[in-house]
Structure formats: C-alpha cells, structure tokens
Amino acid sequence: MKRLQVHWAKKHTAGTSMGELRTIGGIDIHGNIWNIQVEEAIAGIRAGKWEFYLQENYLEIPITVHSLNESETFLLSQGHGYLPNLLDELPEISF
Fold this sequence. Notes:
95 residues, mainly beta, 8 strands, three-stranded mixed β-sheet, single chain, three-stranded antiparallel β-sheet
C-alpha cells in the first residue's frame, strides 16, 4: 500500500456539486507532484492501493471513506476535537 500525504484539494466551482472536492494532491517522498480525482482515491482506498493522510500539528490524520447512503460516498479527515472535514480547509492549487 502506498501512503500519500495530501497537501491541497480542488473543488467543483459550479453546478449541484459546487464546493465538493474534485481532486486531491500532494508531493510524494521522491518530490513528484501527484493529483488524483476523488472517485479514484475512494476506489484506491477501498482496494487497499493507497492510504492518504493530512499532517496537522505534527500528527498524521488519516483520510477515510464515508457514505451517507449508497449513492453519496466522500472522503473525510477529522482531527482530535475537530468537527469539520479538514479536507475542506486545504488550499486550492491549479496545475
């Protein structure tokens, strides 16, 4: 399983998905920039291909897959004592 730290996210800017995460990305241990669509990240987590995490105050906070129902699946990362999804707080970067 490949572990990747998420540094940024890109959100939908229009339509019914406005504000929802579209891609996540970061820089791997070799200095390579990576970007993955959320749907691909969810499939990779479920298949055991990837493990994603955020780093907050020197702590690794895992990114997990959650479902509201069968049709709504999303990524979630919550730190100790945090109520919001920390992925929503990541900077947006365009490449």
